[in-house]
Design brief:
It comes from Streptomyces gottesmaniae. This protein is α/β, with parallel strands linked by helices. It contains 12 helices and 6 strands. A 6-stranded mixed sheet has the order 3-2-1-4-5-6, with helices on both faces. Helix 2 packs across helix 3 and helix 10 packs antiparallel against helix 12. It is elongated.
Length: 286
């Protein structure tokens, strides 16, 4: 079992390798100290294998790392932030979920906040079952019914993060096209708009509509997601989705650029109050 997304495993492994080197230990010596085989240390350091938070603590103790902030950061990389009792629930769906989607769900389950620009469809965390089914069927042609059912189940299970303790804080900018595209037909779309109205009233959800009248804007390059974490901003990551893969950006300059882009989009979008009225108006007329 792999703990956390691949991008996190690689970074964690690199950090642990640096700490081992600083402690003047070979991988064989480090493995001996914690009672492992040398190959396990090597797999962890290369990101080829996941690692439990308890194992990270063993290595940090062996390397004499007592910096509290550094220890918390590395434990967060191992996935220890998930305190909701649902850690790695998505592994039950490994047969139908591609690795990049599992990585995305892992980040989402551990994040404290999520900022997203959506230009085509309603964010997955706010989709009703019928809308989720229609979107998934359109995105993956020829999907068998049982796999379609499983993917919809996953989409709905992900929404539990909004009801966690504490809940994920979701801030979404929706292009007007998201609201006007009839996914699944008019009846399903009407219920989906009603769901957005309900969500917009939740304290942990902030929705803003980017109207067509805003013209060209920085978001025309495509949708993106910014995950932020409670323990430290050093874990923040941007996710860009492509047709067959996802790209994870963690460099500070990339994060800065996307945060500034999102802030600019919020300025050009309708206020949360006006957005709620706008969505409610569309729902009433749907």
């Amino acid at each position: 079992m792999q703990y956390g997304p691949a991008v996190r495993r690689r970074r964690l492994g690199a950090e642990l390798r640096v700490l081992r080197t600083r402690s003047a230990l070979t991988s064989i010596e480090a493995a001996h100290r914690v009672g492992w085989h040398q190959s396990k240390v090597s797999r962890i350091e290369t990101g080829a294998s996941g690692v439990k938070p308890a194992d990270v603590r063993k290595l940090l103790d062996a390397y004499g790392v007592d910096d509290t902030e550094l220890r918390e950061l590395l434990l967060a990389l191992a996935g220890s932030e998930d305190g909701g009792g649902r850690h790695n629930w998505w592994h039950a769906y490994r047969g139908v979920l591609p690795p990049t989607y599992r990585d995305f769900i892992s980040l989402e389950s551990q994040a404290g906040g999520m900022r997203t620009l959506e230009t085509s469809v309603v964010p997955g965390l706010l989709q009703i079952p019928e809308y989720a089914r229609a979107v998934t069927r359109a995105a993956v042609e020829g999907l068998e019914d049982d796999k379609l059912d499983a993917l919809v189940e996953v989409r709905l299970a992900r929404q539990e993060v909004l009801r966690g303790n504490p809940p994920l804080k979701l801030s979404a900018v929706l292009d007007e096209g998201v609201l006007r595209r009839e996914v699944g037909g008019p009846e399903i779309m009407a219920r989906q708009l009603d769901r957005l109205v309900e969500a917009a009233r939740l304290p942990q959800v902030r929705l803003q509509v980017l109207p067509f009248t805003a013209g060209a804007h920085i978001g025309v390059t495509g949708p993106f997601v910014i995950f932020s974490f409670r323990s430290t901003s050093d874990l923040d990551v941007v996710v860009l989705d492509h047709l067959t893969s996802s790209l994870y950006l963690e460099r500070k300059e990339d994060l800065k650029a996307y945060v500034e882009a999102f802030n600019a989009l919020q300025i050009h979008a309708l206020s949360p109050e006006d957005s709620l009225d706008y969505i409610a108006g569309l729902a009433a007329g749907a």
